[in-house]
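Researcher: Here's the sequence for the chain we discussed earlier.
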Amino acid sequence: MTSQTERPTFRGVICLHCQAPIPVPAIVANLAASSGIEEVEVLQRKSQVFNLRCPCCLKEKPYRTREIVNFEGKPEASIFFPERPTPTRWFTQDGMTRTAKA
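Model: Thanks. This is the structure I predict for it:
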């Protein structure tokens, strides 16, 4: 008996900078994955645009709904950089403000 494993797929676009696959949010994927052919043609004529940030190169670009394709495998996890430390002031202001002298 042969068991076929189903490969996971996701809908996404190709990054314009590094050519990596970027998964699209569910609301955009559901909008673009309409069931009727006429609806797909209407969506393509509307030229709906959305912005996505690439998880690999961290660059953000606008993409069209007609650029959405199916990819095999799992989407890559986003790269999270540690937060930058908050700058510290050298001198405390203690509620005093400077005013311009006339």
